[in-house]
Amino acid sequence: MTDNLPYAEVIGDPIAQSKSPIIHKFWLEKLGIKADYRLFHVKPDELADYIAARRKDPDWQGCNVTIPHKLAVMDHVSDPGGVRASIGAMNTVARAENGDLFGTNTDAGGFFAPIADVPLAGQDVVVVGAGGAAQAVLFALSRIEVGSVTIINRNVLKASALLARFGLKGQALEHGSAFPPARLFVNASALGMKGQDELVVNLDHLPDDVIVYDLVYAPIKTKLLQAASARNLETIDGLAMLIGQAAVAFEIFFGQSPPLEHDDELRKLLLA
Ligand code: NAP
């Protein structure tokens, strides 16, 4: 186990695929923090017992939460940031100073990290997808007060509902529809991911200053990013958000900012 070292972990079902331990262990080592970060397999019917056991473990600093627990975990921890009503899912649980367990969502902050310096207020955005990741993206976009948001999704009604929920003006379109120009184009769908269909989209009419941001990180250079690079457009890949959301969680668990100056080395490790 952990030999009484402080530790955090990532829980899910399945869990072996998670890259979170690579990221957190890399930062712990770089900072010389004596703590551990590990994978822990939790099936859906084990979640309540898992939380109850960790609540009593003083070495446990918290956990990242992945599929299928992002909704269910909200019933077991407090929600001081109102995540249930905003993003609607938690990906991080940690211990408050009074010992109580609380949940939060670091995906919106992780998505925002690589575009923090881009002046996007009032600018139009296109988002592909309306699932969990898209909700974190839309939450962040609503906070940045972007202009019009076009969501392209297989289920258009779901996309329309999200626009209303996040108070965004814009439209929901089916795949294959003509979409307006934008300053930011985000793929927050599963399309383009290994084992999934490709995202078929024509970038020709997007302006030269558009940023093409793909949340998919397996593969890292998706067809979408290849097409954007072929047009010399600025691109951001899914590892940027993966590292960004982990950075927010790391600070919550271990009380220190991760050493982001080693990002190139970390990216090489993640791609190995
Ligand atoms: P999700 O909740 O299951 O949502 C999947 C989305 O993809 C939905 O919008 C769904 O459309 C769409 N989709 C799936 N299969 C499709 C198909 N065959 N044709 C058209 N649309 C399809 O998944 P998620 O958690 O949002 O994850 C989405 C992607 O983001 C994944 O690739 C994930 O790895 C990535 N992600 C990356 C990060 C990161 O840190 N980089 C973080 C979170 C997620 P419908 O709504 O019509 O079903």
Name some characteristics of this structure.
272 residues, alpha/beta, Rossmann fold, five-stranded mixed sheet, 8 helices, 11 strands, 31% helix, binds NADP nicotinamide-adenine-dinucleotide phosphate
Mind explaining what this structure looks like?
This protein has 272 residues and is α/β, with parallel strands linked by helices. The chain folds into 2 domains: 7-105 and 242-271, Leucine Dehydrogenase, chain A, domain 1 (Rossmann fold, 3-Layer(aba) Sandwich), CATH 3.40.50; 109-236, Rossmann fold (3-Layer(aba) Sandwich). Helices cover 31% and strands 18% of the residues. The chain has a 6-stranded parallel sheet, with helices on both faces. A 5-stranded mixed sheet has the order 2-1-3-4-5, covered by helices on one side. The longest helix has 17 residues, at 238-254. The chain is globular and about 55 Å long. Bound molecules: NADP nicotinamide-adenine-dinucleotide phosphate. Residues 107, 110, 129-134, 153-155, 158, 188-191, 193, 196-197, 215-217, 238, 241-242, 245 line the site of NADP nicotinamide-adenine-dinucleotide phosphate.
